[in-house]
Design goal:
Elements (H helix, E strand, L loop, with lengths): L3 H4 L2 E9 L7 E9 L2 E10 L6 H13 L6 E7 L4 H6 L24 H12 L6 E6 L5 E3 L2 E5 L4 H14 L3 E5 L12 H6 L5 E5 L8 H17 L14 E10 L4 E5 L6 E2 L4 E6 L5 E6 L4 E7 L3 E2 L4 E8 L2
Length: 322
């Protein structure tokens, strides 16, 4: 699959089969573009959450824009990682096993379907790649402004590569992430699975509320092209950002109650610590909780649909570094 010398200058599309076990099997559609010259392997993974459409549509278009004759190295596109969620139109969780695919990496060969998908992507894609971009957006319930995560590991070489990738992607809000798992056997997240294996990786967020707006799609396409240029896989592409807004810390706010959510803020809004982000009522309309911002910063996303479950995210606020 990754032998560029045998497939130089060609496209290959195939399905990774995830066999049935304790529950139904599934398939993962993958396109590999083999460049005409030697270079790194860049994996682009869309659809870990099946209701996040802009990354999926971006890869559909991007596949038509890459000329293998002008590519150095190999691009591996996972078009839809979580086919059960995509076809089932579900937010966060698989309709088959109720699990969040982006919380079960590196997966298990003999686990439930989400765990088997994670295992297949880990072994068939991530472990064979040199760099990984995990492409996300605001799920069907999340009103989200664009940003990327830049993980800090303490490994200077990997950290510097990820810092360059973050700027190359071109989204000007960068969340500095210091708290990802470090155990490769319990990496939980797709991008962290790569990072704990010594591979520079990044999580991208562009899109909101399950929409398919062209701007969010084009932002992802442009970002990938910027990273390809940074990795010297192509000669042309958008220039890296000269500067960015670094958000450190950023905090996800979990819901204290189950009920009906009323958001008070918008994505991208600047808030002070203690600002009411949302309130929750019970199913009879009685107010049962208020959710406050834990810090001064920018609202990166806010849940903007009524259902809310105790413990699930309500929003995320990032504080710009001075």
């Amino acid at each position: 699959m990754y032998d560029g010398s045998a497939m130089s200058g060609r496209y290959e599309s195939r399905l990774i089969e995830v066999p049935a076990a304790s529950d139904a099997g599934t398939q993962i559609p993958v396109t590999t573009i083999y460049g005409a010259g030697a270079g790194p392997v860049l994996a682009l993974i869309a659809g870990n959450h099946g209701y996040e459409y802009p990354p999926i549509l971006a890869l559909q278009k991007l596949a038509t824009l890459i000329d293998p004759a002008k590519l150095q190295g190999t691009i591996v596109m996972v078009h839809v990682a979580n086919m059960p969620s995509f076809l089932g139109r579900t937010v966060y969780f698989s309709p088959v096993d109720g699990k969040n695919l982006n919380r079960v990496y590196p997966g298990r060969k003999d686990g439930t379907v989400s765990e088997r998908i994670a295992y297949a992507i880990t072994t068939e894609v991530i472990e064979k790649a040199d760099y990984v971009l995990d492409l996300h957006c605001g799920d069907g319930n999340e009103s989200l402004r664009p940003y990327v995560y830049q993980t800090v590991t303490g490994n200077q070489k990997v950290d510097e590569a990820m810092a360059r990738m973050a700027l190359a992607f071109g989204i000007d809000h960068i969340v500095v992430d210091r708290n990802r798992p470090t155990d490769p056997a319990r990496s939980l997240y797709c991008s962290t699975t790569a990072i704990t294996r010594g591979k520079p990786a990044m999580t991208v967020e562009s899109g909101f509320l399950g929409t398919t707006d062209p701007e969010s799609i084009e932002r992802i396409i442009s970002g990938v092209q910027g990273v390809l240029r940074e990795l010297k896989m192509v000669d042309e592409g958008p220039a890296a950002l000269a500067k960015a807004v670094y958000l450190d810390p950023a905090e996800v706010v979990a819901s204290p109650e189950t009920g009906i959510l009323y958001e008070h803020v918008e994505r991208g809004q600047t808030v002070k610590k203690g600002t009411v982000l949302a309130h929750i009522t019970n199913f009879f309309g009685e107010r049962i909780a208020e959710v406050l911002s834990p810090l001064d910063g920018v609202v990166l996303y806010i849940v903007a649909t009524p259902p809310i479950t105790k413990g699930q995210p309500i929003g995320c606020v990032g504080s710009p570094k001075s």
